[in-house]
Design a protein that fits this description.
274 residues; Immunoglobulin-like
């Protein structure tokens, strides 16, 4: 309608000097002038009607003139925004099937230490940044106790924090390697410093703390000594899991330190029966 309003507005800007009055030719000349003015007025009315018809016409109308900006949308259909899936194949905790997520990496490390690794009231350190999307948190069973380092990362497509695994200098695992595909029995190899050299081992699948297989390996009780062995486990129903190495206190049975290795199961696991 701004265009229509401008058509009816008087012209603006500098007005040219008016010409001197000319002598009239009597009534006939006045009638001719009135007819011309009336014709011009009718032409303006016709032009206005044409513009209104163009702006209010049906589906076959043609729009002419300058393009106008579209009005902001106030509803209606929109293209759906599809969230990209997060690849959790490298993450031990939390499980992708759960609703548990962490905005704070320290809290993620604490809950992992308690719920997954089995620590009791652990002492949890500060977040130590690695790159902008990853870092570490140290966990101890008691002050000045052995350090278990929890490895965390914000996975691609997610701003929440995920645990990739854990490691302690007293339980160094060479096999299985992180991300390895394992089958039963799984080879266990590395070195450990533990009371009487005993390190307890679980093979777990995602979604449960119940182990598919449990056993132990023996390192050394004085200095770190090598261990090797095999651990059989039952058929998994998930594609991914973890091998958990822990030392338990001989005094009260609590977890003192842990190394957690992310693994895949050969064959991808057997799908669950729905």
């Amino acid at each position: 309608m701004d265009q229509l309003t401008r058509l009816g507005d008087p012209p603006t800007g500098k007005v040219a000097d008016a010409e001197p009055p000319r002598p009239t030719a009597g009534p006939r000349r006045r009638r001719t002038g009135v007819a011309i003015a009336l014709g011009a007025a009718l032409a303006v009315v016709a032009l206005l009607a044409a513009v209104l018809t163009s702006s209010e016409g049906g589906d076959d109308r043609t729009t002419t003139g300058a393009a106008t900006a579209p009005e902001p949308s106030t509803g209606g259909s929109r293209s759906p925004v599809i969230a990209q899936p997060v690849d959790t194949s490298t993450a031990v905790f939390p499980w992708a099937s759960s609703d548990l997520r962490f905005d704070d990496p320290v809290e993620a490390a604490r809950v992992f230490a308690v719920d997954f690794a089995g620590f009791t009231d652990p002492i949890v350190g500060e977040f130590m940044q690695g790159d902008p999307r990853s870092g570490e948190v140290e966990v101890r069973a008691f002050p000045n106790g052995p350090v278990t380092t929890v490895l965390l990362r914000q996975l691609s497509g997610a701003d929440t924090w995920w645990v990739l695994g854990a490691a302690t200098a007293d339980i160094v695992v060479e096999a299985p390697a992180a991300g390895a595909s394992i089958s039963s029995p799984v080879e266990l190899r590395g070195s450990a410093l533990a009371f009487e050299g005993t390190v307890n081992v679980d093979v777990r699948q995602d979604g449960t703390h119940e182990p598919l297989g449990a056993g132990f390996v023996t390192g050394s009780g004085d200095v770190a000594g090598p261990f090797s062995g095999e651990l059989a486990f039952s058929t998994p129903t998930e594609r991914f899991g973890a091998v958990v190495f822990r030392e338990f206190s001989e005094e009260d049975g609590r977890v003192l330190k842990a190394t957690v290795v992310r693994v895949a199961f050969a064959g991808g696991g057997i799908p669950r029966t729905l």
